[in-house]
């Protein structure tokens, strides 16, 4: 690892504009923005993927590898990634900082407390909750309906029994009521942090977040409870993007980590903006597959900010294609051209969808050792047949060197990109909310019809009445299928989407549309990853890989 | 503020042994310890006080001021203080970083997230809770008695309704049971962090903490639940002391902040040890008055570590003396020699108590503008009459310059101190637990008798049976009186102490003895401090003072 000051100086950042956190991570100060704001923007590259499969597609890996590759071929590139949440590191999956020769470091720190951003979100969120409950106890001057409190508490831990709780038991301990916890990354505060342009915007967004409804059905906001300023104070360092590096010394901005279902699932606007001023290329990713992640990146993040990607990189793997062609997880390493061809329908639909936004696409085939030449050739000619750029990526095995071909394809596509003229959002702002949902379902998921539960239908009407219909929708759907049924792989048609609930995130600025049950608090598995984590005598850590 | 690298270099710390957190705070690395371990120790100065009163005695202020004063008169001194908890900053009291001309900076950062130590304690504590509940749900192989879980969850927030909760409601959400939250500083993890000599010791202490009891009454430890290593990983940066500075540029180690009732209430052993190697004087403080704070500092921290103070500084104020002489809070500014003389009984008893440890005492009279010359003279001659050094401190108004006389008195007392020969603990380790409690009550509080509730009596017997009686006791008592009745001011006699419960903190290594109800989760007041906190456009903060 190089000192973070060295990484920063490669980006032309003055050491006085760095706020170090240990030797290998630093926050970029607000003063840096003043220095670079007037510069031209570099090009934004969005990395997305087919629908995720149990085999893992390597989207983060490809984002890191492509950044390494772009620097390798002489460009100045920076990656912009989400911060891993501590909870899941202790649960199922270990860390989330790439793998093989395409990793970001210091990975143990990044995976755990890092620079404290997620802890700051937890504190700010829970301060609002504590102030709300205190308001209830101290006389409830705002006439809050105790059965319509929509603001849960949060913790960055996989802690199943906190999903549904009762609080306030015992004399002198406030108002007894049902409550529950979400994992911190599901907090609207996290979404707000990631969409805020600056401290002023952050404050406005925090202030309009809805905590509860009054007896007469009026929304009760953070502003009304008086928590806006104190929450902003708690978040004042967390709004600054964090700089780290790849194992090959490329700069990486890692900042914010909102859920990709009930929120928009991409790293912060601030980090993207800083990156575009500091480098020729910012390579960023969006959560889950292109049907969820890219759609939200474009229809929420780009819509709110005016940002637009010059190129979309669509990650595919031979394994994921065969899985979408009906092969079980355990049999994916065996060559199977038929299944692969079957599964290409999934890739085709993502390509078609992304073309609807007027964006040039490069398909990145993340190569696994078990892929046959014949299989790889099949994918490549399929993409070429759709007039789509395609490149193999061997970033896992070879780092930046292995992503050279991909980097060249992306740089060339970016060079030819006419995104300024051709980019279009999926729907205009002033589309009624029901129509927005229909457009996403019809154009992106290709569902035949939509069914709203009475609850969802009532909620939609109430939201339009109270807040109008200018906001984009944020779909909360299973990532594994275009449909709301995780078992419908490939490119399903003729399905009906069930909309179970709709609610507004007034601070983040979108309307969350839930299909099925959305889990906002994961549990620990029978054998949590925490059991394998070790601290060695020399201070090093194992078990987080 | 000077860059933290400058402060460090005055202490002879190599920049490579610093882990910066922003520009004005840094952690001291483990490698620094290897470099300095062989050095001789400086002298340790313990700052304690009379029983606290609503007027505020200025113990932290005096600790900071004395450090400034010692440096001013040519010594190399460092302060060792506790980290403020974020929760109370949002509740009643604002920040906790000194005041006037004796403050530590950057105060807003120190008062809030600082270097993330308290957040790390929260995460480590709650990981054990999540793993415990997961164990229950996954079959309860350890046969944990769900009604004898002693490990609550924690949050660094004043959040009243979390005192008593029910968790695990709903299908698939684990085992339904009663639970509750404490504020993080009440976590045994915090006490362990502050008493651990190094990472290995930390691990051992974490591992033996008791989470619950089995159906057959056996303790269930963190080791048994498998959380020790992962908790250590979460705490691996938090164990490193933090370096900041006073507003006059003196070095300050600020590290750890355990409760002063159910825990021992002083900053970390690590910080004390680092300070003793880096400076001629380490000035540290203990929570509440000398009856609680100093007693625990000596009988717990010094007992466990072999550390001993060369001098004890006992902070007194004219106001506090008058309050102990029966004057109401609002009338303390009016001269009242009679009340002051009456209140001197409180000071006398603290002096007598500290003499029992064989320690030289300097009484620091923290001067307020309303003190009359006559009143001050009365206090000074009273102390001299007890052969006790005494000095006025004007640190609030004049910083280090105002503490020059105090610094000179302390340095001289330290020079003459024969602590190595004369220091003695209040009781030997192998005293039965009931006798230890009796000795503290008789020798320090001067109570006439003790009454154990049947619950406390049973708990004591069970603890002695399962763990022996080698551990010291940690008294949890009102700080406002020598007795367990906060209204008995001055130097009460003939009172009976009621012991309501006894429990073991097996990781911290003490037996907590509760008198009355101990509150481990504060609530927010009607007008929380958070309502006054503001973030200004230039990024500065107000309302935390």
Automatic annotation (TrEMBL), chains A, B:
Catalytic activity line of the entry: (6S)-5,6,7,8-tetrahydrofolate + formate + ATP = (6R)-10-formyltetrahydrofolate + ADP + phosphate
Top EC class for this record: ligase
Binding residue positions for ATP: 53-60
Enzyme Commission number, as recorded: 6.3.4.3
InterPro entries hit by this protein: Formate_THF_ligase, P-loop_NTPase
Matching SUPFAM superfamilies: P-loop containing nucleoside triphosphate hydrolases
Any one Pfam family match given in the protein's UniProt record, by short name: FTHFS
Pathway assignment: One-carbon metabolism; tetrahydrofolate interconversion
GO molecular function per UniProt: ATP binding; formate-tetrahydrofolate ligase activity
ATP-binding as UniProt keyword: yes
GO biological-process terms attached to the record: tetrahydrofolate interconversion
Alphabetized UniProt keyword annotations: ATP-binding, Ligase, Nucleotide-binding, One-carbon metabolism
Keyword Cell cycle: no
Similarity-based family: Belongs to the formate--tetrahydrofolate ligase family.
Entry-linked HAMAP family: FTHFS (MF_01543)
Name this protein carries in UniProt: Formate--tetrahydrofolate ligase
Originating organism: Paenibacillus aquistagni
Gene: fhs
